[in-house]
């Protein structure tokens, strides 16, 4: 029996669709970089700088939007962020089309493109923290892991569908896939308008000393940062490694990278909707994620250059699929306000990707014989953080038992 239209479950589905649309929009842009270089006359360095600028703005604005969501409410903040992101994407696409038609030169358009990415980053930063906090508030406390794994799965699904959305649009013309950069946030905006305003953002009147994080929270935040550092490094070296170690051409390596990114996103989605959501506690998901991540990293690094590396990549992806909802659910058990908490988590994730992209490329050039060295170090630190988080949590529980006695 399907839930009523106004049920919390139906609202959570719409929130998941908003998250999926954001993930798809990110991947659509990345898949069109070669065509933007060719048709618009932008250099690869300029595109990289624009993407980095938007990512930086995402990183710094996430906690601020989360805090405002706590104070004002999730729906108005999410609507404001989506409206700003939509306007920024319209400006960005219009500028690229004008360049492709020869109406603008790179030197004339670069400042306006940078402004569009700043506006986009500052506004899109509202999406993930608001959606995560809102979904948690709509659900039951004991189902945090299931809810957060559903959101993570939705983001993975969006990333997997992004390239598939771009392919049919290419048949209409080289730049037609850029239309998705407008259609996806517009769809998310319509979905959000259809959600009821729930008083989820009640002001928190508790004294600051009563708003606490769970035991080992700093280790969990560190794990969030290091996990995206690991993924970022793997993503940035995937194309060069396919070219150098597997003898593919530049075009072949780019195509294979797109297929692999879509495949691993779909694999992550399947693991989260079939396995993670059935686990009883977030601690189990967290530890399974750490174990799979370590095994996958070792297998991948030891078999890189052969077809067996695909097995290592699969185990690595399974680890991330367990790990992310695991530490997110553990952190959400704190007495922190949801928006602030998930804003900080978004800061860790975006900062981790930024570090991973920069570190992965630099290490690949410095140590081409050990292309996954940085990733192995990051995963080793994740294992250390997991052990420390577990020890701190256990010590805190023992202290509470002793206090009660």
Which parts are unreliable, with pLDDT below 50 for 5 consecutive residues or more? 200-211
CATH topology of the largest domain: Growth Hormone, Chain: A
> Span from first to last CA?
48 Å
Shape: globular
Measured on Cα atoms, how large is the radius of gyration?
21 Å
**Approximate helicity band:** over 70%
Described by strand count, sense and barrel closure, the largest sheet is: none
Class per helix and strand makeup: mainly alpha
CATH class value of the largest domain: Mainly Alpha
The proportion of residues in beta strands is under 5%
In N-to-C order, the SSE pattern is: HHHHHHHHHHHHHH
User: Mean pLDDT, as a whole number?
Assistant: 83
Protein name: MFS transporter
Keywords: Membrane, Transmembrane, Transmembrane helix
Transmembrane segments: 15-37, 43-65, 77-104, 110-135, 177-196, 217-238, 250-271, 283-301, 307-330, 342-364, 370-392
Domain Major facilitator superfamily (MFS) profile: 1-397
């Amino acid at each position: 029996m399907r839930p009523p239209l106004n049920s919390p479950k139906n609202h959570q589905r719409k929130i998941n669709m908003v998250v999926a649309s954001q993930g798809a929009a990110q991947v659509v842009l990345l898949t069109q970089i070669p065509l933007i270089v060719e048709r618009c006359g932008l250099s690869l360095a300029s595109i990289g700088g624009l993407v980095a600028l938007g990512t930086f703005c995402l990183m710094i604005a996430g906690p601020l939007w989360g805090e405002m969501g706590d104070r004002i409410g999730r729906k108005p903040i999410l609507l404001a962020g989506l409206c700003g992101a939509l306007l920024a994407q319209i400006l960005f696409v219009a500028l690229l089309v004008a360049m492709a038609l020869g109406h603008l030169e790179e030197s004339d358009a670069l400042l306006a493109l940078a402004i569009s990415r700043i506006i986009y980053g500052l506004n899109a930063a509202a999406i993930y923290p608001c959606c995560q906090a809102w979904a948690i508030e709509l659900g039951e406390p004991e189902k945090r892991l299931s809810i957060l794994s559903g959101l993570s799965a939705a983001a993975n699904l969006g990333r997997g569908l992004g390239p598939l959305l771009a392919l049919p649009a290419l048949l209409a013309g080289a730049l037609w896939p850029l239309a998705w950069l407008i259609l996806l946030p517009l769809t998310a905006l319509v979905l959000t308008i259809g959600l009821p305003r729930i008083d989820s953002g009640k002001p928190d009147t508790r004294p600051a000393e009563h708003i606490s994080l769970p035991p080992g929270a700093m280790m969990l935040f560190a794990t969030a940062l290091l996990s995206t550092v690991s993924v970022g490094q793997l993503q940035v070296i995937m194309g060069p490694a396919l070219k150098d170690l597997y003898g593919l051409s530049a075009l072949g390596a780019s195509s294979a990278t797109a297929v692999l990114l879509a495949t691993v996103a779909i694999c992550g989605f399947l693991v989260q909707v079939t396995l993670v959501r059935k686990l009883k506690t977030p601690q189990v998901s967290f530890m399974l994620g750490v174990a799979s991540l370590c095994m996958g990293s070792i297998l991948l690094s030891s078999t890189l250059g052969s077809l067996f590396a695909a097995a290592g990549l699969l185990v690595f992806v399974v680890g991330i699929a367990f790990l992310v909802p695991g530490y997110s659910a553990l952190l959400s058990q704190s007495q922190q306000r949801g928006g602030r908490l998930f804003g900080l988590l978004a800061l860790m994730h975006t900062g981790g990707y930024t570090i991973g992209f920069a570190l992965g490329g630099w290490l690949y050039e410095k140590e081409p014989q050990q292309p996954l060295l940085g990733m192995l170090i990051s995963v080793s630190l994740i294992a250390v953080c997991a052990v420390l988080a577990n020890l701190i949590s256990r010590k805190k529980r023992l202290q509470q038992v002793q206090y009660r006695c």
